[in-house]
Structures are given as structure tokens and as C-alpha cells.
Amino acid sequence: MIYLYLIATVLIFLAAKKLLSPFKTPLANPLLVSILFFIGLFSFTSLNYQDYAIANQAFIWLLEPAVVALAIPLFYQVAQIKAQAFAIIISCGTGVIIAMSSCLSVALLLTDDKTLLLSLLPKSVTSPIAMAIANETGGLASLAAAVVIAVGLLGALGGFSLLKFCKITNPQAQGLAMGCSAHAIGTAKAMEVGSEQGAFSSLALVISGILTAVLAPLFVLLIDIFIPVL
Questions:
Q1: Mind giving me the DSSP string for 176-212?
Q2: Which of 225, 218, 228 is nearest to 101 (CA)?
Q3: Could you tell me the pTM of the whole model?
Q4: pLDDT tens digits for 45-74?
Q5: Which residue among 65, 125, 127, 219 is least packed, with the fewest CB closer than 10 Å?
Q6: Beta-carbon neighbour count of residue 7 at 10 Å?
């Protein structure tokens, strides 16, 4: 019976996507609406969330091949990517360092819970990578995944509006910004906007994931240094 939850997840998302398609506001996001629906469902009924999590484990398994599939749009932008490889790597590297250091700085002002800090560290990379990093560094994979989804939704809801406000109109720059800050959910939104934005967002997602995995141990050392002081 619990596997009816899996069917319900798919149907709710498809229904939300269909019903919200006429609306052009960023808030009309089917993923956001689906999440809010299930939060309400489990908050106001006696249904067991643990059963829901078990039933939807298949979606967790599908995250990794989904990330690999993002290589497809990259194939069509290979020439432009090669021509700007250095700028792309520098941009993504800067974005990763700013994302991790700003998150850690704000979190250190609010808490000295080391597990929480380690779980927040990989907030700007896609869920499979964030969960793996959290597991390796001593954080909670489930909390890391929840934070990643929240960050991705925020990016998908307001990312392009912010870029427009800042007068950033270059599709490649837009894609890199979305992929670096809002990972897979932002990349899905970028693909809706344009193929070039989607391709560069996919590239930024991959590069940011690799750089975060490499740099995470250094930030863990910083956490080890600051926690005793607090």
C-alpha cells in the first residue's frame, strides 16, 4: 500500500504542472506546490511520512543518472564552452567559494552545532553530491538534501528576476549563475528559458559539484577551528 505514495507523488506533480501552466509567475512552480501539498498532508493527517520516504526511494536512486543526463545539452554547446573554458572555471570557482564561505559565516553567527554546519556546507550543489559530501564530512545527508531543495527552489523562483534586475542578459552568464547557485532545480528552470542557458547551467552544476567536493575538507577544517572558540 505504501507504494501508492509514489504514484501520488507523480500525479500531484503532473497535476500541478498542468494547472499552473497558464500562469507566468515564478511562484507557479509545480515542485514548490507539490512540496507544500505533501507538507500539509502529513501535518494535518495521521499518515506516516516514513512510509512516504520509503515508497519514493526510487526517486533518490534516479537523481544520479538524471545529473549525468545533463551532459546532453552540453554536447550542443561544446565549441562555445571550449572557447571560454578558463572564464567558466574561474567564474564557477569564485561562485563556489563565495557560496560556501558566506553560508558558513552566517551559520557561525547563529549556531555552534557542528552537525548542522557540516550539513549546510554543500547547499549549492545538486542533491546526490551534497548528500555524499555531508556523509563524508559528518553532516546529515537528509538535512543537506532538504537545504539543497530549498536553495534550488529559491533560485528557480527568483533567479532570473534578480539577473534581469541586475541587467545581466547574456544567456551564458545567466546559465552559469543559475547552475552555480541553484543547481539542478535552477538548471531545469534555465532549460525552460533557453537551450543556451540550460547548457551553461548544466556545466556550472557539474563544475560546482566537483569544486565543492574538493574544497569541502578545507571548510571542515575551518569549522573545527572556530567551533572551540564559540
A1: HHHHHHHHHHHHHHHHHH-HHHHHHHHHHHHHHHHHH
A2: 218
A3: 0.75
A4: 888 888 887 887 777 777 777 767 766 766
A5: 65
A6: 10
